Each structure stands twice: as structure tokens, then as C-alpha cells.
Amino acid sequence: MKKLIVLLLMLLPFAGAMNAQEAKIAFVNAGEIFTMMPEFKDMQKKMEDLNAKYKTELETMNSEYQKKYSDFVAQQDSLTENIKVRRMQEVQDMQQRIDNFVQVAQQDVAKQQQDLMTPIQQKLQDAIKAVGAEQGYTYIIDPQVLLYTGPNAIDATSLVKAKLGLQ
């Protein structure tokens, strides 16, 4: 019993010290900062250019398909059965190539966007970490997931913007 009391008395200073250290919590609107970054604007431009290239190619493919299909429909009554089957197969093959092209294009656009976004997200994350370390914050959270922000809440968004040179 005596040892237990001595142990509790020894732990009391540590418990007091833990209460004395208050967690400093700040929030940063990462989405707002992300869209302000020049790298984000560059990424948007590159994605618009990529989408335009795919759109142009798809329009060319669709135009060729429509011409081939129209020619087939117009001539099908005058064609022999063997030629009709071959041309029908050509039209179906073109449609399949278009479908494959759309699928590959969507995958490429998604991959390109992710590849361009990753370094921007990392730069923002590094700036948030640097501000957190400089200001002594225990946590920095995004306000999009907060249910309540009190009047004493610390908004570190401007500090991160300054760190990134966005002011």
C-alpha cells in the first residue's frame, strides 16, 4: 500500500505537466489554397489541351464512322452477300475501335490528372507542415470536415498562402 502511494505521488507531476501542455490546433482551407496555386492553373491548362486533342480525334473517328455507315446503308441493297457482310464487319470494327479509344482516353486523362496533381498536393502538404512546425501547432485540420469552429479557432490559411507566395 505504501509503495502504491509513493508511486502515485511520483506520477502526479507528470499528470500536471500533461494538462499544462495545451494542444494548439489550427485549420487551413486547403481547397482554397490549392486552386490559387499557379501549378494548379498550369495543370488545368494541360488537362484542357489533352481533352481537346482527344475530342478532336474522337470527332474525326466519328466522322469516318458516319461516312462508312452511310455508304453501307446506301449501297447495301446493291451489294453481294459476301461484300455486304465484309462491309458490315468493317462498320462494326470501326465502332469497336471508337469504343476502345474512348475507354483508353478516359483512363489516360485520369492518369495524367493524377500525375499532375500529385506534386501540387505534395507542395501544399509540405507548406502546411512547415507552417505547423514554425507556429508550434499540434494539429492542422481542414475546415471542410469541421462541424463547429469556435471564435478562438486559429485560421492558418493565410500563413500557408504566404509560405507558398500566394498573397
Derived structural class: mainly alpha
- How many DSSP helices? 5
Specify Rg, calculated over alpha carbons.
Answer: 31 Å
Calculate the terminal CA-CA distance, rounded to whole Å. 63 Å
Number of strands: 3
String of helices and strands: HEHHHEEH
Strand content: under 5%
Q: Could you report the average pLDDT, rounded to the nearest whole number? A: 87
General description of the model:
The structure is a single chain. The chain has 167 residues and is mostly helical. 76% of the residues lie in helices and 5% in strands. The protein is built from five helices and three strands; from the N terminus they run αβαααββα. It has helices spanning 2-20, 30-36, 38-75, 81-135, 157-164; strands at residues 25-27, 139-141, 154-155. A three-stranded parallel β-sheet has the order 2-1-3. Helix 3 (38-75) packs antiparallel against helix 4 (81-135) and helix 4 (81-135) packs across helix 5. It is rod-shaped.
